[in-house]
Specification:
The complex is a heterodimer of chains A (about 140) and B (about 180). With about 140 residues, chain A is mainly β. In chain A, about 0% of the residues lie in helices and about 40% in strands. Chain A has strands at about 5-10, 15-20, 35-40, 45-50, 60-70, 70-80, 85-90, 95-100, 140-145. In chain A, the strands form 2 sheets. A 5-stranded mixed sheet of chain A has the order 5-6-7-8-9, with no helix packed on it. In chain A, about 35% of the residues are buried. With about 180 residues, chain B is mainly beta. In chain B, the strands form 3 sheets. In chain B, strands 1, 2, 3, 4, 6, 9 and 12 form a 7-stranded antiparallel sheet that branches. In chain B, strands 5, 10, 11 and 13 form a 4-stranded antiparallel sheet that branches. A two-stranded antiparallel ribbon of chain B has the order 7-8. Classes of the chains: A mainly beta (about 140), B mainly beta (about 180). The interface between A and B is medium-sized, with 23 and 28 residues.
Chain lengths: ~140, ~180
């Protein structure tokens, strides 16, 4: 697996799917119809984040985080719900997964800058505890918390 | 499709933009983009000699599908250059060509000598992955090219330094993309 093979999919409540690999852009996700957001690689779902339990499509956040210098390059894929969590980061090359209740002060799960389509309304800031969410990890991945 | 982003070193009056993503770039007493071992920084009999300051910036050769933002810069937090060798830096929103006396010393990096610096230069090793330096700027589809502010740094060699090539340090950039 390589980083180029990891893409996102937005599954809607009518059964249709908007897929990055088909050329869709993150800003095109219809957040009011979102049922589930997934990070996928060919043939497998790496992370599946369903809405519900207080989370809506407007709480969704996704980033491809590149860290490079000195000839080295690492790419993390971040996805989750803000502010209620959880947030997950995947590093495909090392098959590492990190999961946290919220964004952290440092490391791969360090906070993000919101985009215009991400509405982290104050009214949503009701529960910062880590809630159970269906996070499917592929075999061989390590969950580091 | 993810953008193709490179780390660039800016030199000269133009300036000239040189891709240093996969190379070790050296600070020297010249404004050359790849000085190699030419124009090393002489150890002074007393006081401090400086490298020409080094201006670095991100550059996208292909556009992101969405936006690039949340740019940061940091080190490993430990000065491995050795006794008498320090490195200071800060961000700048406009390029200013490095000056000095070639082969002897660069002009000291200060807000007085580099009017576009965001503030007084600080020890770069205070910027770590846990407390990175935030770099202002973003890039949105369909734009390409240089984006974000510069990170400008300078090596300072005191009279207590020893001769020879110093150990390389890794300076890290990070950015988010949608």
């Amino acid at each position: 697996m390589n980083s180029l093979a990891v893409t996102w999919e937005a599954a809607y409540d009518d059964g249709t799917v908007l897929a990055e690999k088909s050329g869709a852009r993150y800003a095109q996700i219809e957040r009011d119809r979102l049922k589930s957001f997934r990070l996928v690689s060919p043939g497998e779902i790496l992370v599946d984040l369903p809405v519900g339990d207080g989370r809506t499509g407007y709480n969704l956040v996704y980033r491809r985080r590149t860290i490079f210098g000195g000839g080295n390059k690492v790419v993390w894929y971040l996805a989750g719900w803000v502010p209620m969590g959880p947030v997950v980061a995947i590093q495909p090359e090392t098959e590492t997964v990190k999961k946290s209740a919220t964004f952290e002060q440092s490391g791969p799960l360090r906070g993000v800058e919101p985009t215009p389509e991400e509405r982290w309304l104050p009214s949503h800031k009701t529960d910062f505890r880590l809630k159970t969410s269906k996070v499917t990890l592929p075999s061989g991945y390590v969950l580091k918390t | 499709m993810a953008a193709t982003v490179t780390i660039r070193r800016l030199t000269g009056a133009g300036p000239t933009s040189t891709d240093i993503t996969a190379t070790n770039t050296r600070a020297s007493t010249s404004d050359a983009p790849a000085p190699g071992t030419s124009d090393p920084i002489p150890i002074p009999d007393s006081g401090t000699n400086y490298s020409y300051w080094v201006s670095t910036q991100l550059n996208a050769t292909s556009t992101p599908s969405g936006t690039i933002n949340n740019i940061t810069w940091y080190t490993d937090g430990a000065n491995g250059f050795g006794t008498g060798v320090t490195c200071v830096g800060n961000t700048a929103d406009v390029y200013v060509q490095a000056t000095g006396t070639q082969g002897t010393s660069g002009t000291q990096l200060t807000t007085g000598n580099h009017a576009e610096l965001a503030g007084a230069p600080v020890d770069v090793f205070t910027h770590t992955s846990g407390s990175p330096k935030s770099i202002t700027g973003s890039l949105t589809n369909p734009s390409t090219g240089a984006f974000g502010h510069f990170f400008v740094y300078q090596i300072a060699v005191a009279d207590t330094a020893g001769p020879g090539t110093i150990t390389a340090e890794t300076f890290t950039w990070s950015y988010d993309e949608t």
